[in-house]
Amino acid sequence: MIPSRSLYGLLAEFDKPAELVEAARRVSAEGYSLIEAYTPFHVEELSDVIPSRAHLVPWIVLGAGIIGGLGAFYMMYYASVISFPLNIGGRPLNSWPAFIPITFELTVLAASFAALIGMLALNGLPRPHHPLFKARRFDLATQNRFFLCVEAADPRFDRVRTRRLLEYLGAREVTEVWD
Fold it and tell me: Tens of pLDDT along 49-108?
C-alpha cells in the first residue's frame, strides 16, 4: 500500500536578501501567517517582517514550576503533619521555613523538565527529517540562496494563487514540497 502524501507548502527561491525581505513583506501583508524564511546568514529585517508564532514554552514552564513547588510543599506537609507527626522540642508540625530548600529544588526541577519536554513537543521534535530537505535546491539555503516557504496549513493558502503570488514577487523558482 502506498502511503498518501500531503502538500507541506510552496518554497520560493530568491537570489538576494533584499528580494527575500520584500517578498516576505508582501506575503505577510497578503495575510499569510505560516511563513518561514531560510537564509545562509542572518537577515535582520526578516524578524520584523515575518510574524512570530505564539510562545507557549514560558507559560508551560511557569505552570510546571508552580505545580512542582506546590507538590513539593504538600509532600513535606503531608509527611510532617499528617502521616508521621513528630513533636520534638515543641516546634510546630508545619515548620514551613524548613520546607523552603526542597520546595525550591523541586520547583526548578519540574520547570526545567517542562521546558525541555515543552520545547521538544512544540517544535515537533524528534523529527529525523523535514519535508523541506526533499526539495531539490534547498541545500543552497546554507550556501548562497534565500528561500521563503508558505505552509499549506495556512488558512489563506491556495496552491495556484499562492504560486502566482510568489512568482509575481520575483522568485527564481517555486517548488511544491510534499510530506
Answer: 887 777 899 999 999 999 999 999 999 999 999 998 888 888 888 888 889 999 999 999
Full domain range(s) for residue 98? 57-122
Q: Determine the Cα–Cα distance for residues 124 and 102; give it in Å rounded to an integer.
A: 33
* Contact criterion met (CB below 8 Å) for 147 and 24: no
Higher pLDDT, 33 or 54: 33
Where does a domain end: 122, 142, 168? 122
Q: Which residue has the cell 502566482?
A: 164
Task: Give me the number of domains the chain comprises.
Answer: 2
Asked, for residue 2, whether it belongs to a domain, the answer is no
Alpha-carbon 18 to chain mean position: 26
116: enclosing H helix or E strand: helix 96-122
1 within a domain of the structure (yes/no): no
